[in-house]
Each structure stands twice: as structure tokens, then as C-alpha cells.
Amino acid sequence: IYSAKIIKRLRQAAATAGIPFQEDVFRTWTDAAAISASGAGIPCGGVYMPRRCSHAPVEVADIGDIARAAELVCEFLRQTRPEDVADMAAFL
Q1: Alpha helices (H) in the chain, listed in sequence order
Q2: How far is CA 85 from the centre of its chain?
Q3: Rounded Cα–Cα distance for residues 58 and 81 (Å)
Q4: 3-state secondary structure of 49
Q5: Residues sharing a CB contact under 8 Å with residue 7, sequence separation 6 or more, in sequence order
Q6: What is the pTM of this model?
Q7: Per-residue model confidence as pLDDT tens digits over 14-59
Q8: Helix 4-17 to helix 63-79 angle, to the nearest 10 degrees?
């Protein structure tokens, strides 16, 4: 569902910054997945954190996992050049 190029770039960002990561163990459907699949599609990728009691009033997560997810997104953005954003084909 998600852009293979964005997934590759997320993996590269994690490797560059030394951020440990784990691939999804099963397909995750989110609003981003629907956007990715609609019409011509908008390139999307997902960054998820392990947690318990998902969608309950109180979810439990490790604060370190949350911080590393934020670091990963920041590193991904640092590695994304302005011309990549202007040329969406870079993400398709």
C-alpha cells in the first residue's frame, strides 16, 4: 500500500541515525493507506510505535520508542531535499 521509495528512505534514515527499527509484522491500514490508494495516489509511508491497549482510553508505550520515532521522522525530513518534494515522482 505504501510507497516503496518512502519505505526505503525511512530505512536509510534509521540506518544513518543509528535508530533501531522493526518492520510491521502484518499489514497496517490507516487513513494514510487510503490516501495512498486513492485516485492516482499520494505517496505515503508509516512510522508506528509498539504499544498496548491500542485505541483504548489509555494506551501504554515506552517513552524511548516515542522519542526514537520522532528522531526517525526528523532524520527522514533532513534527508529529503527540496527538489524531492517538488518532484513527487521521487516518492512514487
Answers
A1: 4-17, 31-37, 63-79, 82-86
A2: 16
A3: 38
A4: coil
A5: 45
A6: 0.81
A7: 999 999 998 877 666 777 777 877 777 788 888 988 889 988 899 9
A8: 110
Signed CA dihedral, 19, 25, 62, 9: sign only: positive
42-51's contacts with Cβ under 8 Å and 24+ in sequence apart are 42/88, 43/3, 43/5, 43/6, 43/88, 43/91, 43/92, 44/2, 44/3, 44/6, 45/2, 45/3, 45/6, 45/7, 45/9, 45/10, 46/2, 47/10, 47/72, 47/73, 48/24, 50/22
Contacts of 29 (CB under 8 A, 6+ apart): 1
| Phi, psi for residue 47 in degrees, rounded to 5 | -125, 120
- The three-state secondary structure class of 85 is helix
C-alpha span between 7 and 23 (Å, rounded): 10
